[in-house]
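Worked problem 6 (solution included).
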Amino acid sequence: MAIAETSAPRLGNALILRAIPTLIAALVITFSRNHAPVVGLAVFVGFGFLLAAVMLFTVMSVPLEGLNKKLFGAHAIVTAVAAAVAAASLNGGLPTLILVISIWAALTAALELYAGYREQNRTIAKEWLTIGAFTAVLAIIEAAVPLNDVYAVGLFGAYAAMVGVFQVIAGISLRTDSPLKNEVAS
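Solution. The predicted structure is:
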């Protein structure tokens, strides 16, 4: 099912809204001197709960159709559960940090990539596929590369910075790419 062309600006607003918790996480990690696993988990807890709320708001406010509505609802649930697990195990250390972030990233990347693959509007699909690809790379690196705590937390911060900036750019692009403008240009 495709998203109506008139919904692209609303989806652009949703992407910009999604960037807020992502950029907050990036800023907190970037300007924190302490990159201990407990700090990474605490930042992920805040990021996860805020992002889950934004995703639920997106599901309710943007006219997503069919399976895409369910995929983004599942994204919100997976993110909230991951944040709850991180909150319950703040003192779990580096293994917990890597496990929580890599499993969350793998699941949400799969959901985002599948939503992008199914979307018929190629402009919107491109944005979802790119975010899904960034998240998949995070999952692979966190899970497969042996990291110390500074690198594990820093990698999450770098991911948040890249994805947050991309979401702002993609959101502005979707907001300004209206069907009326395309008709006038033709």
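Discussion: Confidence is low (pLDDT under 50) at residues 180-186.
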